[in-house]
């Protein structure tokens, strides 16, 4: 048996002993001769040129390498002769993507591209945002998470499980990038409206961070997706032979809290005070507590509570142009009193309080929520979770949504229940009976969980509803008129919001910043959008919108004395734009 010992020699690796296998093919790395119990060294070369350059998604340009680059970087022969520029590559890939009829296949093709050629992936996403958002984000990302174990190819992001307890700092150091600005982290317990998907929730941080880059211009190398795996209570996954996570029920209580605490401390120690940690799709029994616990020591943001609140408030502010009155003139009813529902409710109450100078305890009174047990009223106070208590107003008990609509007579109906088909025909008809222009938001994701479809909202309200939904719906023709539904999704907010925190060097998140983001987004809705009944601008302008949101958030950070990047840039919109990553190829010397 040949004995292998490798040493580095002037940049070349050579074996000091016999390195052929039976005198035949050279076994330079000892792969063939090593038996299973024989240790070998996993050598790699780190210079990105030649073959390794083509396999490095950050620098690979595929057929776009120029003749000069092919010579200078040892690529001759590794590529076919044709040279295609990025524009042509984009055209070819979009053509190929459109051939897939199954959305999940498009998702997989996009993930492959992201792992092959990062700049081309972002070029596609930015230039075709309305077409590709439903692929890399809701609704398709939901299905991808459900099937993550089966479609798993190469790992994306960082997995921190209970096995890593006590060594999370070391795990963070395994990530190849050292300078991280945004982390999106999930524990997979409430993935969209699909419930506990355990470790397979990783699709969500990965998807959210691609939007940070595509929509908000945050450099991909400074984004880190993380999944914390404390087990899952999803029996189907626990019994699935392809499940990629820990095969145990969820850790709770002290064990959970200690792991999260170690994680939060390790992140700060490794990346400093100014890394933004975005909590995503945690179950509400942890989400509110984590946000409260870490908001005074870390730069934390809960997208489901705060980002959703900000995007919905923006839509409401914009909708006043269509429905008239001020925010304080409206009555709000929510189906769903969890993270999204109570988060939105609180931000509406804060905005009304800011506008009217009335105390927030007063302004909350025109906001009502229904949970799985019915309308939240004062007689239920004792048994309510803490985040529901501020909404327990005086009223007799009401069981179902329809009765609640009849009793409360809302002008605005917001679905944040995670349960599809709950805005029934009777509910929508009653909203249309009560209001000239009822505002109906079906926020739950993915499409299967939407409280109603766009078609249902328009037809059941006889064309009266102003409608937006968390996952996209196509325009609907009703009685010869085209109705274009908007997408009320926190994707409008978090990329620009995060960019604003980064460019100002903010060290904490404050509610005032969320209000500023809402106002900035509402200000981007044009007359042309209003004419179509839209309360959100189209995603095709999102990078410009994100720059405006970032500027307002950064301005607020400076005003509140929470910004550390000094001096304050004069024109924050221009500054935000100048900081944005653009995916065009770079020329290599
Ligand atoms: N469009 C967007 O940008 C966003 C959308 N979402 C979506 O919102 C949904 C909810 O998310 P989140 O708030 O975090 O979830 P939570 O689990 O925190 O809250 C869900 C709420 O809905 C209530 N609920 C569940 N079933 C029913 C029912 N049949 N009737 C009445 N109420 C019900 C629950 O009641 P109980 O408390 O009694 O159990 C709970 O109050 C998800 O589908 C998510 O995808 C979330 C964030 C952003
Ligand atoms: C959009 C989003 O964050 C959610 O549905 O959870
Ligand atoms: Mg979410």
TrEMBL record:
PROSITE patterns: MALIC_ENZYMES. A divalent metal cation binds at residues 280-281, 304. Transmembrane segments: none annotated. Residues 114-295 form the Malic enzyme N-terminal domain. Residues 1-24 are annotated as: Disordered. Belongs to the malic enzymes family. This is Malic enzyme. The gene is LOC106759749.
């Amino acid at each position: 048996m040949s004995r292998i010992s490798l040493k580095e020699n002037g940049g070349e690796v050579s074996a000091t002993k016999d390195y052929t296998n039976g005198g035949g093919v050279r076994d330079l790395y000892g792969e063939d001769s090593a038996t299973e119990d024989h240790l070998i060294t996993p050598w790699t070369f780190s210079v990105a040129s030649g073959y390794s350059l083509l396999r490095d998604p950050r620098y690979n340009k595929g057929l776009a390498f120029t003749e000069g680059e092919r010579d200078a970087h040892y690529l001759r022969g590794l590529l076919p002769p044709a040279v295609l520029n990025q524009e042509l590559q984009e055209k070819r890939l979009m053509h190929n993507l459109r051939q897939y009829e199954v959305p999940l296949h498009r998702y997989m093709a996009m993930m492959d591209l992201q792992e092959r050629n990062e700049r081309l992936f972002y070029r596609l996403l930015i230039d075709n945002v309305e077409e590709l958002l439903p692929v890399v984000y809701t609704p398709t990302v939901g299905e991808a998470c459900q099937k993550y174990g089966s479609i798993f190819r190469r790992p994306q992001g960082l997995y921190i499980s209970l096995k890593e307890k006590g060594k999370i700092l070391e795990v963070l150091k395994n990530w190849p990038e050292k300078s991280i600005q945004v982390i999106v982290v999930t524990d997979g317990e409430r993935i969209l409206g699909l419930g506990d998907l355990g470790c397979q929730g990783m699709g969500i941080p990965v998807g959210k961070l691609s939007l940070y880059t595509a929509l908000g211009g945050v450099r991909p190398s400074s984004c880190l997706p993380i999944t914390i795996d404390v087990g899952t209570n999803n029996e189907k996954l626990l019994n699935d032979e392809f499940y990629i996570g820990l095969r145990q029920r969820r850790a709770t209580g002290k064990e959970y809290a200690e792991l999260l605490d170690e994680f939060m401390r390790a992140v700060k120690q490794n990346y400093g005070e100014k890394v933004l940690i975005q909590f995503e799709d945690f179950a509400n029994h942890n989400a509110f507590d984590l946000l409260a616990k870490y908001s005074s020591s870390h730069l934390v943001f809960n997208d489901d509570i705060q980002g959703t609140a900000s995007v919905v408030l923006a839509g409401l502010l914009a909708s006043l142009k269509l429905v008239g009155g001020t925010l304080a003139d409206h009555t709000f009813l929510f189906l769903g009193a969890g993270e999204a529902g109570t988060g939105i409710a609180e931000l509406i109450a804060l905005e009304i309080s800011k506008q009217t100078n009335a105390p927030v305890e007063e302004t909350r009174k025109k906001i009502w929520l229904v949970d799985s047990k019915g309308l939240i009223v004062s007689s239920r106070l004792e048994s309510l979770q803490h985040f529901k208590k501020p909404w327990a107003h005086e009223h007799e008990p009401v069981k179902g949504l329809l009765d609640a609509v009849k009793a409360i007579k809302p002008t605005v109906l917001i679905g944040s229940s995670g349960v599809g088909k709950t805005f029934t025909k009777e509910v929508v008809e009653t909203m249309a009976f009560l209001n000239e222009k009822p505002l109906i938001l079906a926020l739950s994701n993915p499409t299967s969980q939407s409280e109603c479809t766009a078609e249902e909202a328009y037809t059941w309200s006889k064309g009266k509803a102003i409608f937006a939904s968390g996952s996209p719906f196509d325009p609907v023709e009703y009685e010869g008129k085209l109705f274009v539904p908007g997408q009320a999704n926190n994707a409008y907010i978090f990329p620009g919001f995060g960019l604003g925190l980064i460019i100002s060097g903010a060290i904490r998140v404050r509610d005032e910043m969320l209000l500023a983001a809402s106002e900035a987004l509402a200000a981007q809705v044009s007359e042309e959008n209003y004419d179509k009944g839209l309360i959100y601008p189209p995603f095709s302008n999102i990078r410009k919108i994100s720059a405006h949101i970032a500027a307002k958030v950064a301005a607020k950070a400076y005003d509140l004395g929470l910004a550390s990047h000094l001096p304050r840039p004069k024109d924050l919109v221009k500054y935000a734009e100048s900081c944005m990553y653009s995916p065009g190829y770079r020329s290599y010397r």
